[in-house]
Structures are given as C-alpha cells and as structure tokens.
Write a structure and sequence with these properties.
The longest helix has 10 residues. The radius of gyration is 30 Å and the shape is elongated. The chain has 698 residues and is mainly β. The chain contains 2 helices and 61 strands.
C-alpha cells in the first residue's frame, strides 16, 4: 500500500499623490509639523475566543522554553504556538485558574479540584497528568487552585484551603490557623498571607511572619514584585503601593491619580515591564502602567482598545510583550511597537478612507466627514513615555458630515470628495466647490492633472468629471463630465502622456486618452477616447484599483497585483514585489510608494500590511518578521508622511481602514527577535484507502 507522509511545519511567531505647489491655486502643502504629541495608543491585538473556538474567562498565562504560550480558561489549558490553538482539558473538564513553568519547561496546572502538569502522550500530544493522588487524603478536599509557582526548591500550589509543595516526588502541605490569602514568589523566595496574622515567608519548611508583616493581617495583598535593589513592591487596594526592604514597609509616595485608580478599579495582579516600569491589572479599569516612583504613565482599558475593562492576569513573554487574561478573551500589548492605533478615544469614530498632511495638520477622511489633528506635532509612538498618557484627539472639520472618500492637496487647496459633492477645506472649516444635488455629483476619488495643474479630475459614482481653478476669479469651475463613462470610479492614475487609468467597482478598468493638446473635458466629448479592459484582457472579475509608482501603474484586485502590457493590450500578474501578490492567494486593496522607493501594500480581505523593500539593484524584497505582521486589520488607505523640513515625521506611514487609523514609525528601533526553533507540530501518514494516521502531534 502506498503511503504519503504529510509534515506540518510551523515556524513559531509567538515569542513570535503629492502635487507641486502652484501660485494660482488657493492653499500650499506644508512639510512641517511642530510640537503637539501624535502618539497613538499602544498597539493591542485582541484574541476573541470565537476565533479559535474556546471558552471565555481567562485567569492565567505562561510560556515554555520554545516560546509556546499557555492560557488557563474555563475549559482547561489553551496552547498557542503563534499559528494554531489547542485545548488541553483536565479529567473533570474544570477550569484552570493558575499555571507555572519550571526550569525544565514543564507546565504545571492549578485547576478546580485538581492539580498537576502537562506531559506528551505516545504521539507527543500534551495531556494533563494529575498529582491529586500525591496529595494526602485529608488534604484533597479543595476547590480552586488560584496560585501556582515553580521555584528552585519545588512547585507551589495554593488552594482555597491549603498550601502545597511538590518536590522530589513528594507533596508537602501547610495548613493555616485561619485562612490563606495570596501567594507570591519574589527572587525565588515564597511569601503568603494569613488572615489575622499577616504576611509570612516560607523559610525552609516553616512559615514565619515577616518583619512588620502584621500590618497585613486584615489588608489583602494583590501584588508583590521585584523592585529597586533588593526591595519588593507591594500593591493593595486600600493602602495603595508600598515597598519592603526585608526590615520594614514604606508607603510609596505615588501619583494620587494612580492610587485612586487602583482603589476604585480593584487591583488584581501585576507584572514587571521593561525600563523599571510596572503593569498593574484591575478588575474594573484595565491596566495601569506606572514607573518606579508610582507615577501613572498610561491606562490600557476598553477605550484604549481592550475587549473589556476586567484583567485577571498580566504576563510578559520572552520578547517583553505583555499578555492579558480577561473575561472576554486574551490581549497582546506591544510595549515598544512602531505601530500605534487611533480609534474612538482619539476622535476617530468611523472608517478611514484617505489621509493627507496639509499645512502641518493631518487630515483624515472618515465615514462621518473629515477630521484633523492640528499642526504642531511631535510623533511619538512609545506607549509608556510620560508624554503618551493622553491620546491626542482628532477634531471634526466643520461643514462636512457626509461620508468622505478621498482627500487631495492641489497646490494651496485641500479638496474632499464626499457623498454630498466636493468640498474645499480651509483650516477647520469646509465649503462646497460642487454640491451633489440629488446625488448628481456623488464623489469618490480625486486626482490633480499633470498636464494642467489647475484641473482636478473627480471620480463619481457614475462617471468622471473635471473641476478647474480659475486664477482670475479665484473660483472653481465645473467643466462637466467625460462623456461615455458611467461606471463608479474609485481610483485615478495619470501617466506621463496624460492618459488616465480609472479603477472601478466591478467593471474592470478604463483608459481615457485625449487628442494632442487637449487634456480636459468637453461636453461634446470630442477630445477623448475611452477604452475598457476587463476579464477578457486578463484582469480578474470584480473590483480593480489603479495606483502609481515611479516605475509604472499598478492594478490591484482581490486576486493580487497586475501589470499592463502595452504591446499585447493585456494584463498579467505582477510578481515584482513578491510572488504572493501574483499567485491569487491574497487581495491587494491599495498600494503606496514611499520616499525611499519601497512599496507598501494593504489588503482588505487578508487584513494585512506588507512592505516590499527596494534593493540597491532595483529589485524588491518582501519584508518579514516586522511588527506589521501583527496588524490584522483591513487596509483601505496608505499615506507616507513625508516631511523633509522636519525629520521627526519623515519615517511615519499612516494606514486607514474600517477599524480606524494606524501609524507606523520606522524610526523606533526594531526589537531584536529571539531565535525560536521551527516546531514540527504534526506528522500524519496519509493512507489512500484507509483512515489517515497521526504519528506525532507535539
């Protein structure tokens, strides 16, 4: 019998158009952006249980030596290797409240009514191995195992009734005189709280009261973390933050706002972050980021992008990425990501379809009109800097409430194409250039003519029109439509000969050629020739967009990129920027070339951002391993923020889409990626006439 071996190899990721200024037009593009903070919120990737078919409610997080993540939830332990999810259930199908990893990489599990560890079976699939039989019979009656810690002297489990230590194949138990609360391990030393007694330390096999620890006989501790020197940082809900040097406890003179936040929102857990900062999780207000002096740096809550306000557990992985266990799922927070997000908290309350910087201000076309971030900005993405405590707010441009699809700087003018027609924006106010009476000028795209810089082409829902600025009257004139065009025009590109390529919604592309010396619209349509290209010419069916690069016009579609061959008048898949953009495996929604010659590609259905880096020989290399891979969001617009007079904004690229606004700052140093092994997760023997056999599932 013939056999086919199928290997699944998973590489873990987890650890893992600028127009020239014309004096005859009313506004000019400014390249300067000065003093206001443009920092967005921390980049957050939410994992909703619906994505991987798991339960809600998460209480614990751990990571093994390979970089694989583990999450304790209502159904068991959820394993995530950066690509796929697996659930490891306990025998009683109970929830998992705590996790720990020992020096060998073994995962220990605290469940409900059970405790144990994960071990591979005969084919490498992880299974739960109970240690309940190792617990003395009189100590087996417990419910939740809320705390698990692995130390050099054993693995500790704290149940609702007892403290247990697993070491050298033996389970040892300590019972409280009253009741235990909490369990903490700091620098390999074990601390536990006992009601009406105080804070205890396990010394050898004896629980001993710490110096001054009696003050916590009735005040519950929720956080104990390594602090400066040999000190320990402690967190309570009522007394706030304290430090302990082994001899006495001192109140940390914290920011009053931080103390009030922890008191009102119920401190639940904490973790040490980079640069001597701390993440303090709460059950009602998200996570507070503080520095070593207790100053509040940032709050990560629902307004900042979390799925909900409750955070049960906070964890930092091998790459210093923060993970949060929440009731509604899991969140991954990039501490020093070049990506920053702007959503409702920043005033971006709908989709983003176009962006442009004009007179130093950043203007954004949205589903609710146009918003802007005032000029005088200093782009900073660092989420934990003191400057980023408050997210900057975009302000609405007065006079526009319709959906806006395109923004264009035409010399001194800033134009906006909307459902209601075309507006001109001056500062924070807009006025009509051409109103769409009875939907007669429903505008979707704008392009400034290369042949006549006073002319702007307008892509309509049902055709193509021309607006021209008259420098004598200082007014815009409606030149009418190009006859014979009734398709919805979503994008416009002009080549050096003055020919226009028009991208449509579902009718392929159009090419408009003008008679020599004439590059405008006439009501009679005598000067132009309109050609149509569709699937008969090599294009895929459906929408097709057109975008300019220095080399040539690119054609985007739900089957990737295409190029036009003038000799055959046909279109062919374009692999210039990577084979994956030419094999039909992913859509490309929008393309933008930056000042360095690299090409950015945004997808809607694939929900991804890619960059093809220009090489010295003129070829392109698709970028891999960057933070962009985390931006799982549909992209409709890309804008390279070129500001030669201000190098602070020279490296920013903005992305818009249905979920809001992203900013990528390439000036932020790329975090050194740890080297993770390729993981063979499954080996299957495929039988032609029988059921397939899994021989490895590790």
């Amino acid at each position: 019998m013939n056999k086919i071996f199928a290997f699944t190899l998973v590489f873990c990721l987890c650890a893992r158009a600028h127009a020239r200024e014309q004096r005859s037009l009313p506004l000019s593009t400014s390249s300067s952006a000065a003093a206001r903070n443009e920092a967005g919120r921390s980049f957050i990737r939410n994992y909703n249980p619906k994505e991987f078919g798991a339960a809600f409610n998460y209480w614990a997080i751990a990571q093994d030596q390979r970089g694989v993540m583990y999450f304790g939830n209502w159904n068991g332990v959820l394993e995530y290797d950066g690509v796929s999810w697996r659930l490891v259930s306990t025998p009683n199908r109970s929830g998992v409240r705590s996790l720990a990893v020992d020096a060998s990489g073994r995962i220990y599990v605290g469940a409900v009514g059970d405790l144990g560890y994960l071990a591979p079976d005969s084919v490498g699939d992880l299974q739960f191995v109970s240690l309940l039989e190792a617990v003395q019979p009189e100590n087996r009656e417990f419910n939740e195992v809320w705390y698990s810690y692995a130390t050099s002297h054993g693995v500790y489990f704290r149940t609702d009734k007892i403290l247990l230590r697993w070491a050298n194949g033996r389970m040892q138990a300590w019972r409280p005189r009253t009741a235990f609360s909490g369990l903490f391990v700091v620098r390999d030393r074990v601390y536990i709280q006992q009601w009406r007694v105080g804070l205890l330390e396990l010394v050898g096999d004896s629980l001993q009261i710490t110096r001054g620890g009696a003050r916590f006989a009735h005040e519950r501790l929720h956080v104990m973390l390594p602090y400066a020197g040999e000190k320990i940082l402690l967190g309570t809900r009522e007394e706030g933050l304290l430090t302990y040097d082994g001899a006495s406890f001192q109140t940390l003179q914290s920011d009053p706002a931080a103390i009030e936040f922890l008191r009102e929102n119920q401190l639940s857990h904490g973790a040490v972050l980079r640069d001597e900062t701390f993440a303090l999780a709460t059950l009602r207000g998200g996570v507070a980021i503080i520095d070593r002096n207790g100053h509040l740096l940032q709050i990560l809550d629902k307004a900042a992008g979390l799925q909900d306000h409750d955070v049960n557990f906070v964890f930092t992985d091998h790459q210093r990425v923060m993970w949060l266990a929440q009731g509604r799922g899991i969140a991954r927070v990039e501490p020093d990501s070049p990506l920053a997000f702007y959503g409702e908290a920043a005033g971006i309350k709908d989709f983003v379809s176009s962006l442009i910087r004009h007179h130093g201000a950043l203007y954004v076309a949205t589903g609710l009109g146009v918003s802007y971030l005032p000029s005088g900005t200093t782009p900073v993405n660092s989420p934990y800097s003191s400057q980023s405590k408050h997210t900057p707010e975009f302000r609405p441009v007065a006079g526009i409430t319709a959906q806006c699809w395109s923004l264009l700087a035409a010399g001194q003018s800033l134009l906006a194409a909307t459902n209601d027609g075309v507006y001109q924006i001056v500062g924070e106010r807009a006025s009509f250039i051409k109103e769409s009476v009875a939907d007669s000028f429903f505008s979707m795209s704008l392009h400034r003519s290369k042949k006549d810089s006073n002319r702007v082409w307008v892509g309509l829902r049902d055709g193509l029109a021309s607006l021209r600025y008259d420098s004598a009257t200082l007014k815009w004139i409606d030149e009418g439509r190009i006859s014979g065009i009734h398709e919805p025009i979503w994008s416009i590109v002009e080549n050096n000969e003055g020919r226009l390529w028009l991208g449509t919604e579902a009718q392929g592309v159009l090419r408009v050629s003008f008679s020599h010396g004439n590059h405008g619209a006439t009501r009679q349509g005598e000067n132009q020739k309109v050609e149509r290209f569709d699937s008969r010419h090599g294009l895929p069916k459906g929408w097709v967009g057109v975008y300019p690069t220095r080399a040539r016009t690119l054609f985007t579609s739900d089957k990737g990129l295409f190029r036009f061959d003038g000799d055959t008048n046909r279109f062919f898949p374009d692999s210039t920027y990577g084979s994956m953009f030419a094999d039909g495996s992913r859509d490309v929604e929008v393309v933008s070339e930056d000042q360095h010659g690299s090409v950015w590609l945004g997808s809607e259905e694939a929900a991804e951002i890619n960059r093809a880096l220009r090489q010295p020989d003129g070829s392109y290399l698709p970028e891999s391993g960057s933070a962009l891979s985390l931006a799982k969001t549909a992209i409709w617009a890309i804008y390279s923020d070129i500001a030669p007079a201000d190098p602070r904004t020279n490296s920013a690229v903005w992305f818009g889409g249905p979920d809001g606004l992203l900013r990528y700052d390439s000036s932020i140093p790329r975090r050194e990626a740890l080297v993770y092994p390729a993981l063979i997760r499954r080996v299957t023997i495929l039988h032609e006439a029988a059921q397939d056999s899994v021989i490895f599932a590790g």
